[in-house]
Structure prediction request, 516 residues.
Amino acid sequence: MRHEILRAFKFALDPVPAQVEAFARHVGAARWAFNHALGMKVAAHQQWRREVQALVDQGVLEAEARKKVRVLVPTKPVIQKHLNQIKGDSRQDDLAEGAYGPARPCPWWHEVNTYAFQSAFIDADRAWQNWLESLRGARAGRRVGYPRFKKKGRARESFRLHHDVKRPVIRLAGYRRLRLPTVGEVRLHESAKRLARLVDRGEAVVQSVTVARAGHRWYASVLCKVTAELPERPTRRQRERGRIGVDLGVKHLAVLSQPLDPDEPASAFVANPRHLRQADHRLAKAQRALSRTQKDSARRVKARRRVARLQHEVAVRRGTVLHAVTKQLATRFAEVAVEDLNVAGMTRTARGTLDSPGRRVKQKAGLNRSILDVSPGELRRQLTYKTSWYGSTLAVLDRWWPSSKTCSACGWQNPRLTLADRTFHCGNCGLGIDRDLNAARNIAQHAVAAAHHPVAPGRGETQNARGASVRPPGPRARRQEAMNREGTGPPRPVPPQRSDPLTLLVTPDHELAKRP
Prediction:
């Protein structure tokens, strides 16, 4: 059956210096537009707080005052209309120099594409809505903090241009060039033949393109609405292989319940490339050089780019390996079973608090780096959408099921098994097997199908921590927050939704008034 899905095609760009300058102008425009929109929202929020506080000073209960005060938060149409009224124009020197009053904002708007502003306004609306929904408890995952302004040098350098169907300004010029409005034709490092043929056949329609800088390279992510033939069931080859269990670890990137290649038993143990460890020496040297430079100096800029380039190379190598492994799993087997891991809890710092300092902090920090280098969350995310592409399904094992301590042959459990024990010995049937291989077989036996959704059965959203703080507590915090199991507590009440939740700041959640 043919379905319309959204797919992104990512290409590395090879821009000329003039195009790099154009990218920088669009990035600055998008950052300015986001900050401008967020500033208007924050101003409305502060006005609402002042009015609520005025009623409270008059003797009105805070809950009643919150219900009485209504302040509209400007959204994208209002912000865009307001900007069109107040913006200046650098082509008119009198307005730019302020001959008839103060200089108007954004006099350079005509130098960049208008969609750089509009997409930034949309991003600001989404950030504000995510914060409100997180306060209400209506958003799964870790609690979203108050939206912050983007700072040059710290925020991600990116901008998004939307595609106009009536005027197709975003298109491929051959297989090696991408045409962008205002920028022109940008050369691609690799061939875009696959996307070009889909567009020529009418099976793909460009929706938008996001240009971003990562390390020393510029990338273009072309989002398309693709009409694809998605298989509704596994192929014969996948059904023959059946279900496979995947146990992620540090010693091995993944241990599989059965080999990827039936003729090679060793393929059940996927080696861990340890990309971060391989680049550790170069990274340490580059970071030491960065720490010795003076602030705001040219050498510091050069040293920072060196560190960013090394980090980017590590990320690219890691992503390449993960994509290769997840595609093999999704295409060769009818069902892929994984364990629901609490990555945020596994990689939490061991420093403790001032009252009770932690132990073996350095060793735990090294373990955390190794776990994050494996990227178990990214591997599961890729499996989630790739299994739906290739006709297979994803199964998830409950996070608290003792997969490593249970015998995969008879079900006997060894509660005294420690992390130092790399071989599992069953006290009932006498089975001796690698600890991770035993866990992978248990995952394959006891995981429950997730139906293409990253949600563990019966547990709600568990891939991230629901209701957790915005960021982990400080290394020397007075109070250590509890690491509760996600989804076990009672659900937070969700207030009645309005047609536009962004237009109203008042929510019944008492935390809203305490936010800055």
